[in-house]
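Take a specimen:
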Amino acid sequence: MRVFTDSDIAATLREFGREALIWRQLWHPNLLPFFGIYYLDKRLCLVSPWMEAGNILAYLQTSQRPVIETERLSLMFDVAQGLRYLHGNNVVHGDLKAANILVTPSGRACIADFGLASIVDTITVRFKQSTTTVNGGTVRYQSPELIHGERRNFASDVYAYACTCYEILVEKVPFYEVINEAAVIFKVLSGIRPSCPPQCAQSLALRELWQIFKQCWEESTANRPLVGEIVQRLQGDPIFAQTTRVQMADWDETFTSKFRHHIQPKHASMTLEHFIPSSSDEPGIPNRLKPTEEISGIIVKRKYETEDRAQEKRIKVV
């Protein structure tokens, strides 16, 4: 569960409401489900399943046994499938990295914090003046165009995907040998990319994968593959295909809908119609938003309702 305090809410409620509405309508085995929004003791909370294994880097580093190559490749494939789903719904993640990839009890990778990570990073920059973020993302995973101040896009997600896979492979952040973030920016803008790790020399699958990484790291966005193309190439590789597995269910929509119903109707509701633009072509907004959406638990106008009334409340997207 992620929590925002009153001071944060005042600055980010507009974005928060829109992004929460988007997240709620996304559903894929390789995305972290959104259970609901909860307002308690002046704290705004985003509720999702608890992942005991933590993020993917913690999962790899704390495993009771060595995580073999095929398992790492399978995790990379999971991330690619989740990202393909997001891009298929016109959603740009914007901050893809190992810290935002969680691992389910069955060992499946799930993308988290999409669409919301930029809000948190904005807060970080405002109050801490951190140099670890540029344009709402993390420097070590950012493509050259983002460093130059351009908007996040599908191609920048693909660049970050390769950086994330690098981290899954070596269990270190890109450019781990460089401490200063400014030096990382200089390297990226100079065309330098993470070095091929020694284990690639011993594995045909990793050598094939590294060629994909190099294309994802191309300077020109036009030269980077689409994430759908990456998934197809991975599926078509006989060696890599051996790593894929049958997806196991860690949760289902029935449980999720019951959980939403349980936590939301007893609390105040929020009208989002003033915070959602009537139309927008900007990346990151799914083109299949439902004409109406039910959201309870966020406060803009404090209209405390009975449970029955709250269940009937409809939020009109105009």
Summary: The radius of gyration is 20 Å.
